[in-house]
Design brief:
Length: 238
């Protein structure tokens, strides 16, 4: 019988070869873990270890319940840190302000929300961040209690949820979507803008070991916030 330590290296090498050779295309789902355990006659832990190493190299991405997929090739890597708005404002020497506008707890209402909730309930929050008294960001956030059960007891009246999550539920994978939007009438009132004013919308989702943690939308006045990304060549590019 092949030792687990040796077998996991073989599984890793086989999967890596299928990805790098192009046998499995970017975005294609690789075999499920239970399928690989049958193919190699080993434990799920051995297969999981090999796939975790592939994920660590950025060759695959994992999605809870959906499976593991070949990562999209990248000519360059854009690194966007997940900001702690309170820390950012204070580092600039400005006074940070925070107001919880609403809080609730509910069941998931869409397929994307059900994927985030993973069978549990969602904490739904709306809050307003400010800098030196001027509105900086209107935030709407969902937190999966399955991933962060303590969120059900946290007093978000005084604790910004983003700051709390960075400490209490560290993420292992994140996705950003950045768009330009016009402020709705309601958003404009909170942000002290005219309806339709240019804003930056940052939508972010985070996962911890494949399990969804939070999904958040932050609306920033276009003239009060910017995002800086660090770019570097992908390995092998010269």
């Amino acid at each position: 019988m092949t030792a687990p330590a040796v077998l996991h290296r073989r599984i890793y090498a086989d999967l890596e070869d299928s990805i790098l050779s192009g046998e499995w295309a970017p975005g294609e789902r690789i075999p499920f873990e239970h399928e690989l355990t049958v193919r190699y006659g080993c434990s799920r832990m051995t297969v999981n270890k090999a796939i975790s190493e592939l994920a660590g190299r950025g060759l695959v991405t994992r999605r809870r319940r959906a499976g593991t997929f070949v990562a999209q090739p990248r000519a360059q890597s854009a690194v966007l840190a997940i900001p702690d708005l309170r820390a950012e404002v204070q580092e600039r020497g400005q006074a940070y302000g925070y107001e919880l506008l609403s809080r609730g707890e509910r069941e998931a209402q869409s397929e994307e929300e059900r994927d985030l909730a993973a069978g549990g309930r969602l904490v739904e929050l709306e809050s307003l961040h400010s800098s030196d008294g001027a509105p900086l960001a209107l935030e709407r956030r969902l937190i999966a209690l399955a991933a962060a059960p303590e969120a059900g007891q946290i007093d978000f009246e005084t604790t910004p949820p983003g700051s709390w999550l960075l400490d209490a539920s560290p993420w292992t994978e994140a996705e950003h979507r950045i768009t330009a939007v016009g402020a709705s009438a309601r958003d404009a009132r909170h942000l002290g803008l005219k309806t339709g004013a240019a804003c930056l919308c940052v939508e972010r989702r985070t996962w911890r070991d494949g399990q969804g943690v939070t999904r958040v939308w932050q609306i920033f006045p276009g003239d009060r916030y910017d995002l800086v990304a660090r770019f570097s060549p992908a390995r092998g590019d010269r």
